[in-house]
């Protein structure tokens, strides 16, 4: 496999991502973490169209090639219609294999990393109430709204966010949940996931200020670094807090393509 860009920071990102899904997936009703030689697959039947929750992380290309048929059966038997495989920046052979197997490139989030001692302050914005213990349903609802998904699309997939290691955050404006995120500790790395802002509350710097508060908490817990995968739209926000880009990840979808890919 072509040597990945980003080296140790990318290794940390993938290690923490794997630990995140290993804890999140089995904690949801019907969810599972399936460990095969050289790869891990995470299954969330409660959100069968959400490939971000039904995903595969692999170590060796040969293991992925051998397991593709079995993986398809695992997801089919679970009633999952959309699942995907993550690839690293600089990996040319994995995408080639997946494309030949009928997968489509669904998205290319930016891998990003931050030394928490280098965390920068966010810009100003309206005051908000910080809730450090919101119900997982609030995380679910805000992510559905932010992504333009129908209510219930994520089902009960976020139930596992109550498990130890996860830290849930919501910013409230005018008494209503307006933005959210989740962090997850693995070793001394803090992973950031499920960042979302209600469309009616956007352009108020809520996500950046909420994340800054969460990362200060992480630093107090002894975390030294943070990693995340950023959307195209979110990259500028994260760079403003000090995150550095490591290269674009690949999300290789098996299932009906979204409209922009069809």
Automatic annotation (TrEMBL):
The keyword Transferase applies. PROSITE patterns: GNAT (PS51186). Residues 126-262 form the N-acetyltransferase domain. Coiled coil: none annotated. It holds the Pfam family Acetyltransf_7. Keywords: Transferase. InterPro entries: Acyl_CoA_acyltransferase, GNAT_dom. The keyword Hydrolase does not apply. One of its GO terms (molecular function) is acyltransferase activity, transferring groups other than amino-acyl groups. This is GNAT superfamily N-acetyltransferase. It comes from Conexibacter arvalis. The lineage of its organism: Bacteria, Bacillati, Actinomycetota, Thermoleophilia, Solirubrobacterales.
